[in-house]
Specification:
The chain is of the alpha+beta class. 39% of the residues lie in helices and 18% in strands. It has 8 helices and 6 strands. A hairpin with a 2-residue loop joins strand 3 and strand 4. The longest helix is centred in the first third of the chain and has 17 residues, at 60-76.
Length: 230
């Protein structure tokens, strides 16, 4: 059976916040636009920042780097905390949902989720491995239906078969002293080195700049952050 293809969630904070609130995230936590990656622009982002999400075009440069990075980690190894919540993305165009789930799942000590589809999913997914979590998400009708509803609401024009969506969302979080990149299309989480809750935004911005530098002719990059509402 082919996996379902969804209409993608827009990188629109209003749509993303409605999605999170529908799934039980209290409204004190909000997705906001990060207007630029320089220090002055970052200083405008409300604190604390729980996660940073990057939306970028899937290019040959991304695929090449992904393969090279994976080979390097497989040969050299990397430290990954057991406390990280990481899942595979099985459903086409569900990267926005996977990115938001990664953002919340790795901050449940701060986000007091109300009972609902996301809390139920995280409780059931916790003991599973990354692949099984991805499969469980496919079966989580409440989350998938929320995605469908808000994807339709946010879409100015639904992508057609001739114009396939080739953008991808990933998440950066701080956990146990390290900055992790969570990309449901990669083989595992990527440890990008030390960070703290206070420097997560700046350290994630540095990695986002590396993505942009690998595709110098591309302008379609969007960064948003999950922060405490002012």
């Amino acid at each position: 059976m082919a996996t379902e293809t969804l209409v993608p969630l827009e990188s629109n904070p209003e749509v993303m916040n409605k999605f999170l609130q529908k799934l039980g995230v209290p409204s004190k936590w909000n997705i906001v636009d990060v207007m630029g990656l320089e220090p002055e622009m970052l200083s405008w982002v409300p604190r604390p920042v729980l996660s940073v999400m990057l939306l970028f075009p899937v290019s040959d440069a991304y695929e090449e780097h992904k393969q090279k990075e994976e080979n390097e980690i497989l040969s050299k190894g990397q430290e990954v905390t057991n406390n990280i919540f990481y899942m595979k993305q099985n459903i086409s165009n569900a990267c926005g949902t996977v990115a938001l789930v990664h953002s919340v799942a790795n901050n449940t000590d701060k986000i007091n989720l109300t009972d609902g589809h996301l809390k139920k999913f995280l409780d059931e997914a916790k003991p599973l491995d990354a692949a099984a979590r991805g499969t469980l998400l496919e079966k989580s009708e409440g989350i998938i239906n929320a995605h469908k509803e808000l994807a339709q609401e946010g879409q100015t024009n639904t992508p057609s078969a001739e114009d396939p969506v080739n953008h991808h969302f990933i998440t950066f979080v701080h956990l146990d002293g390290a900055l992790y990149e969570l990309d449901g299309r990669k083989a595992f989480p990527i440890n990008h080195g030390p960070t703290t809750p206070d420097t997560l935004l700046e350290d994630a911005a540095t990695v986002c700049k590396q993505f942009i530098a690998r595709d110098p002719n591309e302008v379609r990059f969007t960064v948003v952050a999950l922060t405490e509402a002012n």
